[in-house]
Amino acid sequence: MSPPAGLARPLPPPRADLGLRPGYHSPQVPVEVRLNTNESPYPPPSEWLEALLAEAGHIAFNRYPDRSARALREALGQLHGVRPEQVFAANGSNEVLQSVCLAYGGPGRKAVMFEPTYALHAHIAHLTGTELVQGRRRPDFTLDVSAAVELVEKQGPSIVFLCSPNNPTGLAEDAPTVCSVVAATNGLVVVDEAYGQFASWSALGLVAEDVPLVVVRTYSKTWSMAGLRLGYLIGPSEVVQALERVALPYHLDAVKQAAGRLALQFSSQMEHRVASVVAERQRLVAALCALPVQVWPSQANFVLWRPRERAGQEVWQGLVARSVLVRDTSTWPGLEGCLRTTVGTRDENDRFLSALAEVLA
Ligand code: PMP
Q: Which of 193, 218, 233, 304 should be mutated for ligand 1, with most atoms under 8 A from CB?
């Protein structure tokens, strides 16, 4: 059947302000070595998959899942030593960030972030109609704490985003920095710790019922489950209740809830993978330092670097020609000429290093 004659007309325009911001998409090029999206280079443990398949046999697929994801939140609460009421989970930490913006941002409210940082903080805040206040980091990408405090005090935001370790620079914040920012605002401080397990310090220890701070984590990196789309937040239960009000009913499907809960039984394998990624990161940084590139210290599973004598884009293309894909951040504001490489397996890192040596020769 086709629509009756006369029904056709121009389609309505979407919101005019939906422009994509730089850094939102990472081009996917068919290559042998993919080091562009900060995933884990290892698959999840096979025992986890076996446990999930066994559990899937008991799921009542004709029924809606547990709307409150109680068992998953209990397991996450146990992992972090908090009550399940202090845990909010969603489809990837991006959706957690979106929920925060829906509940605490919106028209007439502001979100502060310090660029260069994770592009989605600005993007999601913008999509939810939240006014962006984009502070800057120092040229070495560290945060000038007194300038940050001054900006927050002047702007009075509803949300302040920190990212630790910061994507794409790899630098982590410390306790005095996070505490100073919390003390300077009446809004909610969001510490995005998507790469938190790779770092030497976490803001999780600052979470309390009467501290306006939340810590966001993901299954996409350390837990090797980027394909699962699961992230969560630890914070005051009052904040979690507000986030539940903006989440869609049954937003977490039953398989995902089980998968996330079962994954936590394999913490020691996860820690082992983190340790090997950190060891490879150190090797990668040392090898990069021997080449004509500037390298920033990283506490994450990626490294930011800048060729000293060649244009970033040209080097990126040379790597693609050798079937190695890294993230081209060279045109992002504040990151001129920089490229970002995800730490891969030993073989992948070797492929990257020898391709880079060739390109720079
Ligand atoms: N926060 C940061 C800092 C990230 O780098 C990423 C992924 N690139 C995310 C959040 C989103 O992760 P996910 O939605 O896969 O949990």
A: 218
CA distances from 46 to 40, 52, 218 (A): 15, 10, 20
> What is the radius of gyration, based on Cα positions, of the chain?
21
Q: Tally Cβ neighbours within 10 Å of residue 60.
A: 8
Residue-wise pLDDT for 171-194, tens only, equals 999 999 999 999 999 999 999 999
CA 258 to chain centre: 22
Q: Which amino acid is at 62?
A: N
- Determine the distance separating the centroid of ligand 1 and the alpha carbon of 275, expressed in angstroms: 20
What SS3 state is found at 106? coil
CB 305 within 8 A of CB 295: yes
Ligand 1 midpoint to CA 12 (Å): 32
Distances (CA, A) of 99 to 96, 102, 110, 190: 5, 5, 15, 12
What length does the chain have? 361
Give the atom of ligand 1 at the shortest distance from the alpha carbon of 219: 16
Q: Residue with structure tokens 């990283």?
A: 298
In sequence order, what DSSP letters do the residues of 141-183 get, joined into one string?
A: S---HHHHHHHHHHH--SEEEEESSPTTT-----HHHHHHHHH
What is the pTM (predicted TM-score) of this model? 0.96
With a Cβ cut-off of 6 Å, ligand 1 is lined by 38, 92-94, 118, 163, 167, 192, 194, 218, 220, 226, 231
**Average pLDDT estimate for 80-89:** 98
Pairing of strands 324-328, 33-35: parallel
